[in-house]
Structure formats: structure tokens, C-alpha cells
TrEMBL record:
Subcellular location: Membrane
Transmembrane segments: 12-32, 52-70, 82-106, 112-134
Record's keyword annotation contains Isomerase: no
InterPro entries found in the cross-reference section: Uncharacterised_TM-17
Membrane as UniProt keyword: yes
Protein name as it appears in the record: Transmembrane protein 216
Amino acid sequence: MVNSSLAYEILLYINSFYFGLFATCELGTLILKSILIGNKHNSDSYWTTVGQDYGVLTGLFIVEGARLFLGRKGSLSERDIPVMFSVILTVPSIAGVLYLLIWQVVVLRIEYIWCTLMLTIQVLEFIFASMFIATMCRGQSYD
């Protein structure tokens, strides 16, 4: 049987470093795209969409940071409530990454790689967090 707590903690540890890299690269890419493409398209609808991209990215940073904090806190103390909130926050976090992957103004090829890797880590964390919660909610066995 797989130790879901250990696998979940390892994924959270990896994601804490990858998220910093992802956030830095995504923010830098969005700034670069808004400068380079903004000079070509000077319409109000373009700037509204770019503002929406910045809003989604900011929301994703906040939600993902809170999700990682709650997941690490719950996993290390072996409590299921923070992990449950972390699992609930996984849904808007996945939605934010999907927005960056599909509905952004311009999506670069490198962003496909970054976002796909982020989605893979998040889905694996969701699976192992669900297994962790199931083992924590199960009654103790005194065999």
C-alpha cells in the first residue's frame, strides 16, 4: 500500500519550489507580452483582456500560496481539516492554470509546458490528498 501522507508531502515540497519558478516565469512572460503586443494593438478591448490576465494571475498566486500553506500545515501535523481546505482550493487553482493555458490573449509554447507541468502536479496532489484524507478519517485499527 502507498503511504499517501509521504507522497502528498513530497508533491507539496516539489510544488512549493516549482510554483515559485512558475509564478516568476509566468509574470515575466505576461509583462513581456503586454509590452510587445501592446505596441501593436492599442485598442481598449486588448487592454481589458490583458488586465483580466493580470487579475487571474494575481488570484492564482494567492490561491496557490494558500493551498500550499494549508496542505503543508495539515500534512506535517497529520490533521485532515487543513488538507480538506487545500483540496477545496485546488479547484480554483486548476481553473486559473487552465485559463492561462487556454483562454489567455496569447499563449506561448513554453507556457504550454509550464502550465501542463503545473496541472500534472496539482492533479497528483489532489489524488494523494484525497487518499490522505480517507486514511485520516478512517477509524483506528488495533490489530
